[in-house]
Amino acid sequence: MPEQPFTHQQLFNLKRETIEEKVMEYYQETQNGTMTIKLLLALRVRYQLGAKEFALVLQDLVHYLFKNTKATKTMKRFFWYFADYFETSELRILALKLDPIRNFFEATKSLIKSQLAKIFQIESDTEAT
Asked: Which among 23, 53, 63, 92 is placed 20 to 30 Å from 106, CA to CA?
């Protein structure tokens, strides 16, 4: 199959059942997770433009791609666009999988801030007496 399996007219005009079938066929044939994520993102745009029937289109495929395949740049970049596909606990685990360094720095930063707040609070309490 070609690198771009659908035209923009197809992505924005085909019925949900047809596009689901074709995207699944494309992924099964190519195993190209990166392009599949991009196609799913286009369907998210279609949903945001008012096609409410595309709310959680291909939810099982999205779960499979993010949970069971190797994290790619595309997955890391577009993960938060698919946040409503996952429960809160799943989001935390996937965030760690997709961006462990960023999460480490965020956790370290919040720990340091909390320790500094304790130190400054202790100092202000001792100065007040």
From this structure: 63
Helix segments in 31-99, DSSP class H: 33-48, 59-68, 73-78, 88-98
Region of residue 15 (phi > 0: left; psi between -120 and 50: alpha; otherwise: beta) = beta
C-alpha–C-alpha distance, residues 72 and 84, integer Å: 20
Q: Which amino acid is at 48?
A: Q
Residue 96: strand, helix, or coil: helix
What is d(CA 30, CA 69) in angstroms, rounded to the nearest whole number? 14
As a whole number of angstroms, the distance between CA 128 and CA 123 comes to 9
State pTM to two decimals: 0.71
CA-CA-CA-CA torsion sign (19, 14, 82, 38): positive
Q: Note the pLDDT tens digit of each residue in 45-70.
A: 999 998 899 999 999 999 999 999 98
Asked if residues 40 and 61 have their Cβ atoms less than 8 Å apart, the reply is yes
CA dihedral 95, 66, 35, 21 (to 10 degrees): -140
The pair of three-digit structure tokens given for residue 94, joined into one six-digit string: 């996937």
Q: State the Cα angle at 63 between 57 and 67, rounded to 5°.
A: 160
